[in-house]
Amino acid sequence: MMGSIIWLIALPLLAAFVSVVAQTYQYGLLVVTLLMNLLVLFAAPQGLTIIGGYEPPFGISLLFDQYALIALLLIQVLLLLIIVLARPLAKNYTPVILVMLAGLNGMLLTNDLFNLFVMIEIVSIAAFILSTANGKLTHTFHYLILATVSGVFFLLGTVLVYAYTGILVVQGLMMRLASLPVALSLIPMMLLIFGMAVELKLVPVSSWAKNIYGQANLLTGPIFAAVLAPAFGFVFGRMMNEVIVLHSLTGYTLLVMAISTFVLGELAAYRQTDLLKTLAFSSIGQSGLAVMMFTLGAPWAGILLLINNALAKSILYGVATGVTAAYGNASMGVLKGVFYHHRLLGVAFSLASLSLVGIPLFLGFFAKVSAVMAIFSTGLIWVPVIILLTAIVEGAYVMRWLLQLWSPAFEGYLASKKELPQKRNVFSAQQILVVGVLAVILFTMGLMPQRFVDALQKTQPAMAQYEMVGQGEQQ
Amino acid sequence: MIQFAGIALILIGIYGLMTTKHMIKLIIALNVMELGANIFIISIGFVAHGLAPIYTADLPNQAFSFVDPLPQAMVLTAIVIGFGVSALGLVVAQNIYKKHGTYDLSEIGGEE
User: Given CB atoms, is B71 within the 8 Å cutoff of chain A?
Assistant: First the structure.
């Protein structure tokens, strides 16, 4: 019964409807749905699933390959841990989270461009509602307007692709688009890129992320940074592999947007004295780096960066929103020395920070080395230089925060002077356990990167037709 | 001709989004833009003197004059999504109004 991948979309949708009626069992339903999704992931065979008996290009199909498996596994596991971590908040948003889960799974599985638009919109609407949990409705409104405009662009791009090719099947669409004259394929490609730019937090449309991420709570912070962000990243990777033809104009526009996002995001993060805002700008910067990797033909590095960022941000946002809620403020002054009271959380936070920066022995190190090596091979020497220089900025603000949060040199002095914040209850034992599990997963991946990379290597068939910047014009 | 009408509405919507800070006007501009996009999509499947793509006993004589049904299906879905987003946007705007007493974002300023 669980052998079809379509359950990954059907189960959360069904559970969402049931959860509205059976409100007492909402949270349990969410947990059970995620656990059943994990079972489906391992039980379902890989391949193309035809829906309703209508074969492509006449019907919608779902493509379940190794690439989709990695993305889906990451999303289900992280969402499961996040809803356990933020249980009281998650209870109030169960139907929304379930609808979002159905949309996310659909987005990562669909093999139809218009269906992808529908799934993106479902996820976006759920994300708008979820962002109201921050209590800053003008931020939600701002996000809603930007994301909807980008959705219209994506829809127009999709329709133009259909008008020029006669199909909407994602798999192999690039070959058809590449055979079109540049003048024809240029506009739909630009529309699709701008259509995804808001959710990818690319400059100049990343302003919403600073607000939503910067005011996040224990539920919204980890979900936006560790579930939604990597999911859109994986979808972008698929689009770059199967749909988007990079002409000189589209390729360099995307590259400039990605590099600007990376550099400006990290520089803005350096300037912040508020922990949540630092993480918000860091998320923007890291998104730019992953997009840069997919654009420059380094999908492995892009996937590694997405996974590292998702795991690290789930811990960082979990701990940061937890201590912010407990101590009332995310500013450096208030949180100075806070890990003196919460050492386990401090260790998990430090591990995630170091992996984010890319210190050796952590997953982030392998991700960043892969990125730099892959780009060196393209001949664009200045790009690795930018990455390395920006990594120094990233390292500087991460180290500054770690020093402030631990306050190692003054902890005894501050404690004796009672200048440390008075100890407050941040997390229950169960929540600390969840943060610990996330930290162990991240740390283990860093210790055994080769085994992890070997599993990733199986995504090669999905990445075989990768296009480089400007290559679309040559075909 | 219909396509130009769609593009014109999209541009009017974008102009509206860029020139107003009033939340209700922003949602109206968004709807104008979506309407333009929908008209543009319908125009993609348009066939002059075309028939509705419905199978009848006279199918062999009609099949070649059908309009493309797929853009129509897309527009139906896009309208539903647009409705949902507009409704949600209005609810958010109404709640902001209850809190701040204005629909004008420039009067509210930043919410930190």
Answer: yes
Beta strands in B1-112 (DSSP E): none
First to last CA, chain B: 47
> Which chain A residue lies closest to B21 (C-alpha atoms)?
A142
Tokens (6 digits) for A366: 């392998």
Judged by a CB distance cut-off of 8 A, whether residue B111 touches chain A is yes
Say whether domain B2-46+67-108 belongs to CATH 1.10.3720.10. no
Determine the structural domain holding residue A23 and report its residue range. Answer: 7-474
Which positions ≥6 away from A318 have C-beta within 8 Å? A82, A85, A86, A218, A221, A222, A434, A435, A438
Domain count, chain A: 1
- CA–CA separation, A469 and B44 (whole Å): 30
Contacts of residue A405, defined as CB under 8 A and 6 or more positions apart, other chains included, come to A335, A336, A337, A338, A339, A346, A349
Task: Give the distance from residue A146's alpha carbon to the nearest chain B alpha carbon, in angstroms.
Answer: 10
Does residue A1 lie within any of the structural domains? no
Q: Within a domain: residue A436? A: yes
The closest CB to that of B23, out of A128, A141, A162, belongs to A141
User: How large is the C-alpha radius of gyration of chain A?
Assistant: 22
Task: Give the integer Cα–Cα distance in Å for A233 and B17.
Answer: 27
Contacts of B55 (CB under 8 A, 6+ apart): none
What interface predicted TM-score (ipTM) does this complex get?
0.92
Look at residues A344, A335, A355 and name the one whose alpha carbon lies nearest to residue A435. Answer: A344
Within a domain: A2? no
pLDDT tens-digit profile, chain A (475 residues): 567 899 999 999 999 999 999 888 999 999 999 999 999 999 888 888 888 887 777 788 899 988 899 999 999 999 999 999 999 899 999 999 999 999 999 999 999 999 999 999 999 999 999 999 988 999 999 999 999 999 999 999 999 999 999 889 988 888 888 888 888 889 999 999 999 999 999 988 888 899 999 889 999 999 999 999 999 999 999 999 889 998 888 889 999 999 999 999 999 999 999 999 999 999 999 999 999 999 988 888 899 999 999 999 999 999 999 999 988 888 888 888 888 888 899 999 999 999 999 888 888 888 888 888 888 887 788 888 998 999 999 999 999 999 888 875 555 555 555 565 667 777 888 888 999 999 999 998 888 877 777 776 665 444 444 333 333 443 3
Domain regions of chain B by residue span: 2-46+67-108
What would the two tokens of residue A254 be? Answer: 């995307």
Residues 6+ apart with CB under 8 A from A269: A277, A278, A279, A280, A281, A282, A285, A393, A394, A397
Residues of A with CB under 8 A from a CB of B: 114, 118, 121, 125, 128-129, 132, 136-141, 144-145, 148-149, 151-152, 155-156, 158-159, 162-163, 168, 211, 215
Chain A residue with Cα closest to B14: A149
